[in-house]
Automatic annotation (TrEMBL):
EC number: 2.7.13.3
Pfam families assigned to the protein according to its UniProt record, in alphabetical order: HATPase_c (PF02518), HisKA (PF00512), Response_reg (PF00072)
Annotated Histidine kinase domain residues: 160-371
Modification 4-aspartylphosphate, positions: D63
Taxonomic path: Bacteria, Pseudomonadati, Bacteroidota, Cytophagia, Cytophagales
Protein name listed in UniProt: histidine kinase
Length: 371
């Protein structure tokens, strides 16, 4: 395993425990290589306090013969405490080397045994081995933390994919049911049927492309995801087509719109989330949705504005809480994941997302996107 630079540079901390001050000084002088840190304890009780107080101890050199609480008792307490049970212990002792004493040390949790008088070369070599083992242990902990972070990112990605594919699929199925109902009610003119089939086919192609793009995106790290020239007007046209807005919803794109050098799928996800919500919650007989932008130097500020029901302050407060829907209706089953991801995508750009709304006055969501 390769050790990270963080682990390589972190000081290795050794707790030295002996009731004789001169022995502590000798041990520190023997083991000091200029990069290690030492904590000293003159009794078993003090050793336990130091071990519980310091989270970064990598090794304990523990004298067996001490008044009040001997080394065996200290080791037993250390190994029964979840905070200290994984710290390596080397017993240092001048008592009998007979097997029963050595075995008692191992039974209480020691990982090695050194007999006094200490052989300086053997002592240094053993401590070097334990330092290396500690560094491997730290590297494994760091890797476990990184894996946990990656797993959380993957969970967000799964939710993102499910949410972003649901809207176009729902629209496509709605159109199919509509064509089926028309056919059941009577003969459909060939030209009209051809138009509907053409729209469905185009939507299918767009959806297939979207799935392929998401799969490519999932195989790449953030640094590898390609930046491309994106004509925002064309992107919006494709996104609207995928959402199959009802005929009573009029979506107006206010041009000109820019051509950006950006990661296309991320910008599409933001627009698709906003448009999907604006369509879904609109309660007017004639729904209006405007999309436009303002040049802000390094950023473009886009907005999506609708004449829907608007939101109360309570609903706004819930908007970006993961798994808690903002909701315009108790019947909605949305998890709130989409809006949370939308906020995350905008903040990745160094921008901010703003909501201006009030009950009955529609809603305008604006966001910054880096050029």
């Amino acid at each position: 395993m390769m050790l990270t630079s963080t682990n390589q540079s972190s000081p290795f901390t050794i707790l030295l425990v002996d009731d004789r001050a001169e022995n502590l000084l000798v041990l520190e002088e023997l083991l000091d290589n200029g990069k290690r840190q030492f904590i000293k304890a003159a009794s078993g009780n003090e050793a336990l306090k130091q071990a519980l107080k310091n989270d970064h101890i990598g090794l304990i050199m523990l004298d067996v013969q001490m008044p009040d609480m001997d080394g065996f008792e200290v080791a037993k307490f250390l190994k029964t405490n979840p905070k200290t049970r994984d710290i390596s212990i080397i017993f240092v002792t001048a008592i009998s080397k007979e097997e029963q004493y050595v075995m008692k040390g191992f039974e209480e949790g020691a990982v090695d045994y050194l007999a006094k008088p200490l052989d300086s070369n053997v002592t240094r070599a053993k401590v070097n081995v334990f330092e290396q083992l500690w560094r491997y242990q730290q590297a494994l902990k760091q890797s476990a933390g990184e894996l946990a972070t990656i797993n959380k990112q993957l969970e967000k990605f799964v939710y993102m994919v499910a949410h972003d594919l649901k809207s176009p699929l729902t629209g496509l199925l709605t159109q199919l049911h509509f064509v089926e109902a028309m056919n059941d009610s009577g003969p459909v003119a060939q030209a009209e049927l051809a138009d509907y089939v053409g729209d469905l086919k185009d939507a299918g192609y767009h959806l297939s492309t979207m799935i392929s793009t998401i799969l490519d995106y999932s195989r790449q790290s953030i640094d590898q995801q390609s930046v491309e020239e994106v004509a925002v007007a064309e992107l919006l046209s494709q996104t609207v087509q995928l959402l199959f807005p009802p005929k009573h919803i009029n979506i107006q794109v206010i041009e000109p719109l820019p051509v950006l050098s950006t990661k296309k799928i991320k910008l599409q996800q933001v627009f698709q989330n906003l448009l999907s919500n604006a369509i879904k919650y609109n309660d007017k007989a004639q729904g209006l949705i405007d999309i436009g932008c303002t040049d802000k130097g390094k950023f473009v500020e886009f907005f999506v504005r609708d004449n829907g029901p608007g939101m109360t302050q309570e609903q706004q407060d819930k908007l970006f809480r993961l798994f808690q829907p903002g909701g315009h209706s108790q019947r909605e089953s949305s998890t709130g994941v989409g809006l949370n991801i939308l906020k995350m995508l905008v903040e990745e750009q160094g921008g901010a997302l703003r909501v201006v709304t009030s009950p009955g006055a529609g809603c305008m969501v604006s966001f910054d996107w880096r050029k």
